[in-house]
DNA sequence: GTGACCATTCAGCCAATTCTCAGGAATCGC
DNA sequence: GCGATTCCTGAGAATTGGCTGAATGGTCAC
C-alpha cells in the first residue's frame, strides 16, 4: 500500500486538518482542498486513488462534483462524508460502484478502515488484506467477524473497532488518549474511563479463549496488544 | 466474463454516469455516448458485445439506430431502455432476436442481471452461470425460481432481487445503503427501514426451510448472507 | 369493479449497546 | 508497610437499532 494518493474535499478547516494529519500518518499521500471547483482541478492534476468528499460544499454539492469528475473520465472511488441527519433521503446513489459513505462525526480508525476496504474492492492499487491476524486473534474485515484460535467471538461495534485498532499496532503501547482519539468519534466528549470499560469487555470475551492475556496494561502509560511474532 | 464490452447510449448525463460507473465496477468494459449518430460510430469501431440503448434519443429513435446497425452487419444484442409510460407495442416491435428491454427507472442489480441473461442467451461471450447456488439456497435466474434445500420458495419480485444481491456477495457485510442502492430503483426516495421489512419477509419464508438462519444481522453495520465454506 | 397481490410507511416492542459511576483491587513510591 | 494513585469491573440508566404486525395505497388480472 505504498503511495496511495487521497484527495480530501471539505470546507471545514478543522475536519480537513484532522483528516490530513491522520491519513498522512496512516501512510497515505494527502492533498486537501476546500471546495468543489478546486476538487475538480486537483483531481485532474493529481490523479488520486480515492476521494473523500463532503456532500455539503459551499459552491456545489458532492453529487455535482462526482458527476463532473466522471464526465472527465476520472473514475477514482469516492467516500462521501455526510452529516448524521441528512442521510435519510440523500443516501440514494451514494454507494454506486466502489463508492461508500460515512456519517459525521466519524472515528479516525474507522475512516482508515473504510478507505482500505474501498481500495481492496476496487483493486486499483495494492492494499492491505481483508484478514487481519495477529497472534491468536483473527479478524475478517469484510464479514466483521472475529476468531480467537478458531472460535468465533461476538463483539459489539465499539469492541470490534477497539480490538482492530489495538491489533493494527501490536507490541506498541497506546495511551488512553490515543485510543480515544482513534476509536471514538472525534467529537466524543466523555471520560477516558470508557476505554478501561471497553478493554475490560474485550478481555472478558477474549481471554477465556486464548492461552495468555492479549491486552497488557502498562500502568501509568496505556495498553498494549502483545504478540510474540510479527513485530514488523 | 472477462472483457465484455458494453456500449451505453443515453442522452441524460445522470443515467449515463450511473450506468457507466456501475457497470464498470461490475467488471464490464464500458463506452458511453449521448446520441444515435455517435452510437453508430462507436459500435462500428468498438465492436461491443451488447448495447444499452435509450429508445428516446434527440437525433433518432432506437428503432432507426438498430436498423442502421443491423444493416452494417453489427449484430450485437440490444437492451432497450424506455420510460415506464411508453406503450408496450412500441417496444415489442423493437425486440427481435436476443434483444430485450427495461423500463426506467431500473435497479442496478437488475440491469446487471439482464445483461448477463442476454449474453447467456446469445452465447457470444463467456458469461456467468444461470444457476446461483450458495449454501442451502439455489436460484435459477432464467426461470426466476428459488429453492431452499430442494423445496421451491415463492418470492415477490423485490424479495427475489434482494436475495439475489445478498447471495452474490456472500460472507460480506452489506450496509442498508448499499442494498438500497443496488436492489431498489435508482430514484427511490424512501427510508432504509424498507430493507429491514424485506429482510424480515425473506427470513420468514426461508428460515423454516433451512437448518440455520441465512441472513445474519450485523448490528450497527448491515446484513450478511452466510455460507459455511469459502472463508478464504 | 373487485379481489389479490405488492410496495411502502409506521409505531410499539424488545434487545443490544453505550456510557457513567463507584467500590474494591492492584500497583507504585517512599 | 502504607498512603496515593491507577486500574478493574459490576450495576444501572439512557439511548439506539432492529424486528414485526398492521395500515395504507397502488397496480394488475379477471
Write structural notes for this entry.
Two copies of one chain form a homodimer. Chain A is an alpha/beta fold and 232 residues long. Chain A has helices spanning 13-25, 36-46, 62-71, 87-90, 108-122, 157-167, 176-183, 193-206; strands spanning 5-9, 29-33, 50-54, 78-83, 100-104, 131-134, 137-140, 145-148, 151-153, 174-175, 215-218, 222-225. Helix content of chain A is 37%, strand content 22%. In chain A, the strands form three sheets. In chain A, strands 2-1-3-4-5 form a five-stranded parallel β-sheet, sandwiched between helices. In chain A, helix 6 (157-167) packs across helix 8 (193-206). Chain A is elongated. The model of chain A has no long low-confidence stretch (mean pLDDT 91). At the A-B interface, helix 3 and helix 4 of A face helix 1 and helix 7 of B. The structure holds a DNA duplex (30 and 30 nucleotides).
Topology:
The structure is a homodimer of 232-residue chains.
Chain A: E1 5-9, H1 13-25, E2 29-33, H2 36-46, E3 50-54, H3 62-71, E4 78-83, H4 87-90, E5 100-104, H5 108-122, E6 131-134, E7 137-140, E8 145-148, E9 151-153, H6 157-167, E10 174-175, H7 176-183, H8 193-206, E11 215-218, E12 222-225
Parallel strand pairs in A: 1-2, 1-3, 3-4, 4-5
Antiparallel strand pairs in A: 6-7, 7-8, 8-9, 10-12, 11-12
Helix pairs in contact in A: 2-3, 6-8
Chain A binds a DNA duplex (30 and 30 nucleotides) through residues 156-159, 190-191, 193-194, 196-201, 203-204, 217, 219-220.
Q: Name the structural class of chain A.
A: alpha/beta
Quaternary class? homodimer
Task: List low-confidence stretches of chain A.
Answer: none
Q: Into which percent range does the helicity of residues of chain A fall?
A: 25-40%
What's the helix-strand series of chain A?
Answer: EHEHEHEHEHEEEEHEHHEE
Beta-strand segment tally of chain A: 12
What is the alpha-carbon Rg of chain A in Å?
A: 19 Å
Largest contact between chains: A-B, 27 and 34 residues
| Strand residue percentage of chain A | 15-25%
> Number of DSSP helices of chain A?
8
Which geometry of chain A do the CA atoms define?
A: elongated
Main pleated-sheet profile of chain A: 5 strands, parallel
What do the pLDDT scores of chain A average to? 91
Spatial order of strands in the largest sheet of chain A:
2-1-3-4-5
Amino acid at each position: 500500500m505504498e503511495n496511495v494518493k487521497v484527495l480530501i474535499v471539505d470546507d471545514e478547516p478543522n475536519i480537513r486538518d484532522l483528516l490530513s494529519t491522520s491519513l498522512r500518518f496512516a501512510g497515505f499521500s494527502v492533498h486537501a482542498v476546500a471546495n468543489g471547483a478546486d476538487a475538480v482541478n486537483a483531481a485532474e492534476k493529481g490523479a488520486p486513488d480515492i476521494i473523500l468528499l463532503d456532500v455539503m460544499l459551499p459552491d456545489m454539492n458532492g453529487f455535482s462534483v462526482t458527476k463532473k469528475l466522471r464526465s472527465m473520465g476520472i473514475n477514482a472511488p469516492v467516500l462521501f462524508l455526510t452529516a448524521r441527519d441528512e442521510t435519510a433521503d440523500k443516501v440514494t446513489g451514494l454507494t454506486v460502484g466502489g463508492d461508500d459513505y460515512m456519517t459525521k462525526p466519524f472515528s479516525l480508525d474507522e475512516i482508515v478502515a473504510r478507505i482500505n476496504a474501498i481500495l481492496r474492492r476496487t483493486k486499483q492499487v495494492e492494499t492491505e488484506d481483508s484478514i487481519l491476524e495477529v497472534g491468536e486473534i483473527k479478524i475478517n474485515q469484510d464479514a466483521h467477524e472475529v476468531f480467537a484460535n478458531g472460535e468465533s467471538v461476538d463483539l459489539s461495534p465499539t469492541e470490534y473497532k477497539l480490538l482492530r485498532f489495538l491489533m493494527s499496532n501490536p507490541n506498541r503501547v497506546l495511551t488512553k488518549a490515543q485510543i480515544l482519539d482513534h476509536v471514538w468519534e472525534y467529537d466524543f466528549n466523555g471520560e477516558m474511563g470508557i476505554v478501561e470499560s471497553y478493554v475490560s469487555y474485550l478481555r472478558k470475551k477474549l481471554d477465556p479463549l486464548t492461552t495468555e492475556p492479549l491486552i497488557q496494561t502498562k500502568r501509568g502509560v496505556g495498553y498494549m496488544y502483545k504478540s510474540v511474532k510479527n513485530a514488523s
